[in-house]
Design goal:
two-stranded antiparallel sheet; mainly alpha; two-stranded antiparallel ribbon; 145 residues; 11% strand; 5 helices
């Protein structure tokens, strides 16, 4: 059985599967970009005394990997590590911080960042998500608006 859907004389039956695949493929790219954006935002927003909590952010595929005693590295290196570990496509990404006091920092124990800075970083990434299109007219690739 063949199904054909048309609108204004434009047949779309042959393109539906192509669009569905493009959205699925682009979603994998989007997940990877979002994970890196979240790591970047949360790293920049993490209060710094020694740098351990900031350096503890990690993004991985295939299960969480907690860095409980990370080497102190700059934000750019943390973001680069996330990009390398996540890659260009991902279905699921675990974003973690194994430093034992990260929960206390997120609850507002530091005057350098408000309570809930982790959620705020995720919200910033969602705003970035709203700027990305899964499909651009005439293309099967994702793009920024």
């Amino acid at each position: 059985m063949k199904t054909k859907v048309s609108s204004n004389g434009f047949a779309v039956s042959g393109r539906v599967a192509e669009y569905a695949k493009a959205v699925a493929d682009n979603t994998d790219v989007l997940v990877a970009h979002m994970a890196v954006a979240i790591v970047e935002d949360v790293t920049e927003d993490t209060p710094v005394k020694t740098g351990k909590a900031r350096s503890g952010w990690n993004a991985t595929q295939g299960g969480p990997e907690f860095l409980d005693d990370p080497d102190i590295i700059p934000v750019e290196a943390i973001v680069s590590r996330a990009e390398n570990q996540v890659g260009s496509r991902a279905r699921t990404v675990d974003i973690t911080n194994g430093v034992h006091y990260i929960g206390s920092l997120n609850n507002g124990s530091s005057t350098q960042a408000p309570a809930g800075f982790v959620r705020a970083a995720v919200t910033k990434a969602i705003v970035k998500l709203n700027e990305i299109q899964l499909l651009r007219r005439g293309s099967s690739r994702w793009s920024r608006r």
